[in-house]
Amino acid sequence: MINEVLWIVFALVNFTMVTIIYRIFGKQGLFVWIGMSTVVANIQVAKTIEMFGLTATLGNIIYGTAFLATDILNEKYGKKDAKQAVWLGFFTLISMTIMMQIALQFTPGPDDFAHEALTTLFSFLPRVAIGSLLAYLVSQYFDVWIYAKLKAVFPADKWLWVRNNGSTMISQLLDSLVFCLIAFYGKFPPAVWFEVFMTTYFIKFIVAALDTPFLYIAKKFHR
């Protein structure tokens, strides 16, 4: 039960930090957050936890905040800025991947204590690394597109929750599908693969639902 409570607190802290950085730094703060969150999420994903009777990765929460940030940009500044933020996050993620792969090739000194830990964190299997990069790019681009479409159909503020939940929950489904297909398909029996896919999406679905109040708060900033 400790993990479940801590997970909810952790989610609230993450979403609160997004609204704070937007409140203080405006649009630029969201761009910084998206770049940072994509990197941190891919570090946290190496840690698995038991929660709600399921095994889940820890990176799902901060990864979900990137979708909240792009939704805020889409809502307040338009699709062009949201797309630019998606590419910023992708470039940040791929830059980190390349730089850390090169860093791991250096021979550690005799007194080094960090090389093994860094190897564990950043020696991604090629399928996992490619799956993560493509899932991010495809799902984030789709999130921007569908949010703009929903905003055109439901433009009033009272439908903000529809735009937010509809775009994020559908795009997170796409994210989970792309990642699990590339990273894990063929590695597990079909039934096990489907369980991994559904578990991954279930956690992301909860995260998407939790971010809605924070979008309403951010909507009031920088009018």
UniProtKB/TrEMBL annotation:
Recorded coiled-coil stretches:
none
Q: Which domain of life is it from?
A: Bacteria
Compartmental location: Cell membrane
Protein keywords: Cell membrane, Membrane, Transmembrane, Transmembrane helix, Transport
What cellular-component terms does GO give this entry?
plasma membrane
PANTHER family for the chain: QUEUOSINE PRECURSOR TRANSPORTER-RELATED (PTHR34300)
What family, per the record?
Answer: Belongs to the vitamin uptake transporter (VUT/ECF) (TC 2.A.88) family. Q precursor transporter subfamily.
What is this protein's function per UniProt?
Involved in the import of queuosine (Q) precursors, required for Q precursor salvage.
Name of the protein described by the UniProt record:
Probable queuosine precursor transporter
Source organism per entry reads Pontibacillus yanchengensis Y32
